[in-house]
Write a structure and sequence with these properties.
- The protein has 295 residues and is an alpha/beta fold.
- It contains 11 helices and 9 strands.
- The strands form 3 sheets. Strands 1-9-8-7 form a 4-stranded parallel beta sheet.
- α7 runs parallel beside α10.
């Protein structure tokens, strides 16, 4: 459990307009601290301070450390490469200055419009080349890059994940929610690709919502607001087995509880709201026997 952290998105913190109520920073970090969590990801840009000294002081106040940060980047568009690499450098500078260890890359068509155009061979090659460039940016700053498969990103489906595994040696986020939704068994990834895992994002999944989401009947925001990501242990993702596989293969990185939430009924009372699900998730992880996978 000393390698378990969380992320602001577990408290409903997201930059997408209309996502839900955004809780104050001090409340989110104090609730993380109250659950025994000592690490967080950066979350949506601008939620936590972007000045390294201010961010360090804030984290120190709550006895927290920064593990990494999420970056949605258009890496398959030749007209945007220079801008995206500049963004990556600025983000990596901040993460490194505050002692983070990894840099999460989510390849998208447009950071402001997550459509999914069909990529031809040239676009795939450009994407892979730019991931390699970001690998160098990260290495220069003592970080490791982790590719994040994600609904509505350019690497979402099982075929796309497999293609990336074959075309690139980039490290991955083992994402127990988005991988499952995309059709790639996260337990298979933990077993067969454990050497590619840089960080683990722990999500559970309500299976009843996967079909409508994948058919486009509902958006990801709709699904999150309807609870597609319940507390760990409340869905169908093989989380305990994934943790067991990774530990048995010698994984020593972070497990980040990242169960995307949305607050749609106004500000919850103190001790209520998203913290309840995160508390349940922490209890679930305490119950996992990493030698056997038995809960």
């Amino acid at each position: 459990m000393d390698r378990v952290g969380s992320a602001p998105i577990s408290w409903g913190i997201c930059e997408v307009p209309g996502w839900g109520a955004q809780l104050p920073v001090d409340r989110v970090l104090s609730e993380m601290q109250s659950l025994g969590l000592r690490a967080t990801e950066l979350g949506s840009v601008g939620y936590l301070p972007t000045d390294p000294r201010e961010l360090s002081d804030l984290l120190h106040r709550y006895e927290m450390q920064l593990t990494g940060g999420f970056n949605a980047l258009a890496l398959a568009d030749p007209n945007r490469v220079d801008d995206m690499l500049e963004r990556a450098e600025a983000s990596a500078d901040l993460l490194a200055a505050v002692g983070a260890t990894y840099f999460v890359t989510c390849p998208v068509a447009d950071p402001d419009n997550w459509t999914r155009p069909d990529l031809d061979g040239a676009a795939w090659r450009l994407l892979v080349d730019n991931l390699e460039r970001i690998d160098h940016i990260c290495a220069d700053r003592g970080l490791r890059q982790a590719l994040h498969p994600h609904v509505d990103s350019l690497v979402e489906t099982a075929d796309e994940i497999t293609r990336m595994i074959e075309m690139s040696d980039v490290g991955f986020v083992l994402e127990t929610g988005h991988m499952l939704i995309g059709g790639f068994d996260p337990l298979e990834f933990a077993s067969e690709c454990h050497d590619r895992v840089v960080v683990v994002h722990l999500k559970d999944v309500d299976a009843d919502q996967v079909g409508p989401l994948n058919r486009g009947d509902i958006s990801l925001m709709d699904a999150v607001q309807a609870g597609i990501f319940p507390a760990l242990g409340g869905g169908v993702s093989p989380i305990a087995d994934c943790v067991t596989q990774l530990e048995q293969h010698g994984y020593s990185g972070w497990y980040i509880i990242e169960q995307d939430a949305a607050i749609t009924d106004g500000f919850p009372a103190d001790g209520d709201g998203p913290v309840r699900d995160v508390r349940e998730s922490v209890a679930f992880l305490h119950s996992v026997n990493v030698d056997t996978g038995v809960i």
